[in-house]
Specification:
By secondary structure, this protein is α/β, with parallel strands linked by helices. The chain contains six helices and six strands; from the N terminus they run αβββαβααβαβα. Helix 3 packs across helix 4 and helix 4 crosses helix 5.
Length: about 210
C-alpha cells in the first residue's frame, strides 16, 4: 500500500498466538546505519501485536482449511506490504500437536515430527514474504512450560537451522537467554503467569532486532 513506506519504518508487527501479547505496544530503540550520513541513527519502533489465536505451524499446510489458518490470512491482510513482521508460532505444536502425532505413529520419532512441521511453517512464511514483499523475522518458540521444554529446545534447533538456510527469513537468535545458565529451565526473571512470558523479555527482542535490522 502507498501508506506503508511512511509508517512501516516506525513499527514492527508481531504475528503470533497468545505470545504476541507480551511484547505488544512496547517500544524498541533500533539503531541502524544511515546511508546518507555514514553514521548510525536511532529510532523508536512500536511493536503492534497481531493475534492469531490457536494457530499451529501444522495448520499452515496448503491443504488445511481450519479456522486459525483463515484467521492468519485475515491478519496478514491487515498488514501493509513491505512492512517488518515478526512471526511467533510453534509453541502449540510442541504442546499438543507433534507429541500426539508421534504417539499415534504418524511420525517415526520426534525429530521427524518436528522436521515436517518446521518445513510447513517455513514454506508458508516464505510464501507470505514473496506475496507481500515484507521483511520477516522468526521469533524463537518460548520455553515457559516444564513438560514441553525439551520438545521446544529440539524444535528451536531445527527451526533456527532451517531459517538460516532461507533467503527470505531471519531468525531472532535469543532463545538461550530465555533459559537458566545451565540451559535446563525457563529463566524466572521472564516469568509471568506460568504460560506466557513477561514483557520484561522485550530487551532481548530489541537486542536481536538491532543485530539484523
Amino acid at each position: 500500500s502507498s501508506s506503508s513506506s511512511s509508517s512501516s519504518a516506525s513499527v514492527v508487527y508481531m504475528v503470533a498466538d497468545s505470545h504476541s501479547m507480551a511484547p505488544g505496544w512496547q517500544r524498541l530503540k533500533i539503531t541502524a546505519a544511515d546511508s546518507n550520513s555514514n553514521s548510525n541513527s536511532s529510532s523508536s519502533v512500536l511493536i503492534i501485536p497481531k493475534l492469531v489465536t490457536g494457530l499451529k505451524c501444522w495448520h499452515l499446510r496448503p491443504s488445511c482449511s481450519f479456522y486459525p489458518k483463515r484467521n492468519f490470512e485475515n491478519v496478514l491482510e491487515s498488514i501493509p506490504d513491505k512492512a517488518r513482521v515478526i512471526f511467533g508460532f510453534g509453541e502449540i505444536d510442541c504442546r499438543e500437536g507433534i507429541l500426539v502425532a508421534v504417539a499415534q505413529n504418524k511420525y517415526k520419532d520426534l525429530a521427524e515430527g518436528i522436521s515436517v512441521n518446521v518445513e510447513v511453517y517455513i514454506e508458508a512464511l516464505e510464501e507470505v514474504v514473496m506475496a507481500k514483499n515484507i521483511t520477516a523475522y522468526v521469533h524463537p518458540i518460548v520455553p515457559v512450560l516444564d513438560p514441553t521444554r525439551e520438545t521446544v529446545k529440539a524444535f528451536n534447533k531445527q527451526l533456527k537451522r532451517r531459517v538460516e538456510a532461507s533467503k527470505f527469513l531471519t531468525f531472532l537468535d535469543f532463545f538461550d537467554a530465555l533459559l537458566t545458565e545451565d540451559g535446563k529451565d525457563f529463566n524466572p526473571k521472564y516469568a509471568l503467569d506460568g504460560t506466557h512470558m513477561s514483557p520484561s523479555y522485550v530487551h532481548l527482542l530489541e537486542e536481536a532486532l538491532n543485530k539484523v535490522w
